[in-house]
From TrEMBL:
InterPro entries: CFAP77. Signal peptide: none annotated. This is CFA77 protein. Transmembrane segments: none annotated.
Length: 175
């Protein structure tokens, strides 16, 4: 019976103080110098990457060959299996020609002059533009707006002249 208020005791006997827990590996236990000096590396396999099918080129070839129905196109795709070209070689060639100071094909932005920021120059430029804008708006308000009435509209846009018709119905010929 366990003691009241205490858990049941373990029945296993523990090893002495000189026992080391864990697994000892004879061939690898060289300590820190071996861990730093000999890294376990995995060699990459030489598997060839299967590229996806190039349907644009296959469809163009099928059209040049005279295929017109879906069945003919399917047969052409089955027997003329054209794959996309591997672009990794092209990319590497392109990367080598890029200058060192260029980031992703774009030149770096020019640095913002810190002295202009400290003197609030950008705020002053914005304020000048706002003042010029308000001056232009005031000038537009001062100009008198002339409204067009019907007479001025008809003077500037005359009505089209009606052409006289020379054809008359046959029943009015004898009048």
């Amino acid at each position: 019976q366990p003691e009241v208020g205490k858990p049941m005791r373990n029945c296993y006997s523990l090893p002495g103080f000189d026992f080391a827990y864990g697994l000892y590996m004879h061939r690898r236990d060289g300590g820190v110098p071996e861990a730093i000096g000999h890294w376990d590396t995995v060699k990459a396999r030489g598997t060839k990457k299967i590229m996806p099918r190039d349907f644009v080129t296959m469809n163009r070839g099928a059209a040049d060959a005279g295929c017109t129905t879906a069945r003919e196109f399917g047969l052409y795709h089955k027997f003329m299996d054209i794959r996309c070209k591997d672009e990794s070689g092209r990319r590497r060639a392109w990367v080598s020609t890029v200058p060192a100071d260029m980031t992703f094909g774009r030149p770096p932005r020019p640095s913002t002059p810190f002295f202009d920021i400290m003197q609030h120059r950008y705020k002053e430029l914005w304020m000048e533009r706002q003042r010029a804008r308000t001056v232009v708006q005031d000038m537009r308000k001062r100009e008198p707006e002339v409204r067009e009435n019907r007479t001025t509209f008809l003077r500037t846009h005359p009505a089209p002249v009606k052409e006289e018709s020379f054809w008359h119905p046959a029943r009015f010929e004898k009048v």
